[in-house]
């Protein structure tokens, strides 16, 4: 069982930066592929970025490429999402998630077994 606890988020203006954190409880955290997803009102989960246990970034959504960066610190059991140059269309609830390595498509939420509680990011224009 893996528990994921998120922190960060909030209300910012367009062009600002935020960093989201996701701390995992499991000692096996370092083996999991970690992903970030977001969900805007009335929409389904949208993939943002994913990172392997090694620190290799597997995928980054085109909508955030060049602005968002996923990273992880296995010693701290934590994955991060650095968000720069935020836009109003980035407004959503952001979720971190953990997936067994080599299992399925890292861009699809159905392959992730564990999810954080979600954190609201609101970007005003």
In short:
Helices cover 0% and strands 48% of the residues.
Give the SSE map.
Blueprint: E1 4-7, E2 10-13, E3 18-24, E4 33-39, E5 46-51, E6 57-60, E7 68-73, E8 78-83, E9 92-99, E10 114-115, E11 119-124
Parallel strand pairs: 2-11
Antiparallel strand pairs: 1-3, 3-8, 4-5, 4-9, 5-6, 7-8, 9-10, 9-11
Word description of this protein:
The protein is mainly beta. 0% of the residues lie in helices and 48% in strands. It is built from no helices and 11 strands. The strands form 2 sheets. Strands 2, 4, 5, 6, 9, 10 and 11 form a 7-stranded mixed β-sheet that branches. A hairpin with a 4-residue loop joins strand 7 (68-73) and strand 8 (78-83). It is globular. It starts with a strand and ends with a strand. The model has no long low-confidence stretch (mean pLDDT 95).
Give keywords.
125 residues; mainly beta; 7-stranded mixed β-sheet; 4-stranded antiparallel β-sheet; globular
**Helix count from the secondary structure assignment:** 0
Number of strands: 11
Binned, the helix content reads: under 10%
Structural class: mainly beta
Task: Indicate the overall shape.
Answer: globular
Give the strand content. Answer: over 45%
Mean pLDDT: 95
Low-pLDDT runs of 5+ residues are none
Main beta sheet strand tally, sense and closure: 7 strands, mixed
Order of helices and strands: EEEEEEEEEEE
**Cα separation of the termini:** 40 Å
Task: Round the Cα radius of gyration to an integer and report it.
Answer: 13 Å
């Amino acid at each position: 069982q893996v528990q994921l606890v998120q922190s960060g988020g909030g209300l910012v203006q367009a062009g600002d930066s935020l960093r989201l954190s996701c701390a995992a409880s499991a000692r096996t955290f370092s083996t999991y592929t970690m992903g970030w997803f977001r969900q805007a009102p009335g929409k389904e989960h949208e993939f943002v970025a994913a990172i392997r246990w090694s620190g290799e970034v597997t995928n980054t959504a085109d909508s955030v490429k060049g602005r968002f960066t996923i990273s992880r610190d296995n010693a701290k059991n934590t994955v991060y999402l650095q968000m720069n140059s935020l836009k109003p269309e980035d407004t959503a609830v952001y979720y971190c998630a953990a997936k067994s390595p080599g299992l399925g498509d890292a861009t699809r939420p159905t392959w992730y077994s564990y999810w954080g509680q979600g954190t609201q990011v609101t970007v005003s224009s």
